[in-house]
Amino acid sequence: NAKKEGRNRFLIFRDDMEGANLERLRLETDLRNAVSRGQLRLHYQPQIDVQTGSVTGAEALVRWQHPELGTVPPIRYIPLAEELGIIDEIGEWVLRQACRDLTELRSRGHELRQVSVNVSALQLSRDFVSVVADVLEKNRLAPDSLVLELTEGVMIDNDDGAMRNFTALRDLGVQLSIDDFGTGYSSLSYLTRLPLSELKIDRSFVQGLDQGTKGGELVRGIIAMANSLHLNLVVEGVETAEQLAFFSEQRVHAIQGYLFSAAVPVEQLQGLLSPGHFAARIDDIQAQDSG
Ligand code: C2E
Ligand code: MG
Ligand code: MG
Ligand code: MG
Fold first, then answer.
1. Measured between alpha carbons, how far apart are the two ends of the chain, in Å?
2. Model ipTM?
3. How far is residue 97's CA from residue 102's CA, in Å, rounded to a whole number?
4. What is the residue with the minimal CA distance to atom 4 of ligand 1?
5. Relative to the CA of 179, which ligand 1 atom is closest?
6. Of all helices (H) and strands (E), which one includes residue 252?
7. 50 burial class (0-12, 13-18, 19+ CB within 10 angstroms)?
8. How big, in percent rounded to 5, are the helix, strand and coil portions of the chain?
9. Which ligand 1 atom is nearest residue 151's CA?
């Protein structure tokens, strides 16, 4: 009968809720210990100047190697870490590891101009500025070797504190980049106020190219704007030869996407840094595309 069914449905619903809550609780507890247990890894995705084929930099992307769940994707634990107030700890680990890796790569003779690190809006504080200064000094890195990627969300509060931290970071000499550009629903006025060096156009615009001419016009507009503001434009999420052809004609600063490489462990990145690696790859892609 309906009443009984209703109750069963409720029970089933409650069971699922409990399951979900348990899973979340488990993830929370494990995430709190992920850094101290050495479960985090950095992977790197190369950024390529299409005109020369050279690698302009690499973005560090954090991976959580969970003993039972395997690799947990960042979308599942970065927001959780922010909620739990442990993003600072994770972010500091990422920053230190990325700078160590860059130093190590260079000591092995690899030429890598810069490494990009994602920074959550919640990390942006005076303490963070000190950590950045300390990391650069410990690794004896030129400050412009480090690019900090922030999303437009950091501009929403638009408070003086955020502005002071931006300026302090820029005064250290690190480069500041806006990640996922175009998805933030914020006013564009921050582009002239903040001391930025780079915009990363979001993957959704790249996908929009395939949907007809308007997508192309929008992207051309963003590129023109970046040029006139003297900001480097990096394109993320390039997957096809057609997309590559579009952007190589537009002369953007660098391209990052599965077409060239997914994010890989640092050992594998070394192979991608060998001179001529991507130049040859670009020739192949262009030959196939036109032939
Ligand atoms: P993001 O910073 O915009 O990074 C780009 C994401 O797109 C990465 O996903 C990358 O693997 C993926 N990607 C790159 N090329 C392609 C492509 O051609 N096609 C497709 N479909 N995807 C591509 P990932 O590694 O899963 O990271 C997701 C997000 O998690 C990042 O987006 C970033 O917001 C966040 N994240 C990653 N590492 C960190 C970190 O250390 N700290 C913080 N705060 N956030 C991080
Ligand atoms: Mg990023
Ligand atoms: Mg991005
Ligand atoms: Mg993104």
1. 68
2. 0.98
3. 9
4. 61
5. 3
6. none
7. buried
8. 55, 20, 25
9. 34
CB 42 within 8 A of CB 61: yes
Angle between helical axes of 126-138 and 160-172 (0-180°, round to 10): 10
**Ligand 1 in reach of 179 Cβ (< 6 A):** yes
Q: Where are the beta strands (DSSP E) in the chain?
A: 40-48, 55-66, 70-72, 115-118, 146-151, 175-181, 198-201, 232-236, 254-256, 264-265
Residue 236 Cα, ligand 3 centroid: separation in angstroms?
6
Task: Per residue of the chain (291 residues), give pLDDT as tens.
Answer: 444 454 555 555 556 777 788 888 999 999 999 999 999 999 999 999 999 999 999 999 999 999 999 999 999 999 999 999 999 999 999 999 999 999 999 999 999 999 999 999 999 999 999 999 999 999 999 999 999 999 887 776 656 778 889 999 999 999 999 999 998 877 788 888 889 999 999 999 999 988 877 889 999 999 999 999 999 999 999 999 999 999 999 989 999 999 999 999 999 999 999 999 999 999 999 898 776
CB of 61 sitting under 6 A from ligand 1: yes
DSSP state of 274: S
Ligand 1 pocket test: pick from 65, 95, 118 the residue with the most ligand atoms within 8 Å of its Cβ: 118
Structure tokens at 149: 């990627």
pTM above 0.80, yes or no: yes
Q: Which of 124, 109, 178, 185 is nearest to 147 (CA)?
A: 178
Distance CA 70, CA 114 (A): 30
Is the beta carbon of 118 within 6 A of some atom in ligand 1?
yes
Ligand 1 near 201 CB (within 6 A): no
Nearest Cα neighbor of 39 from 48, 47, 30 is 30
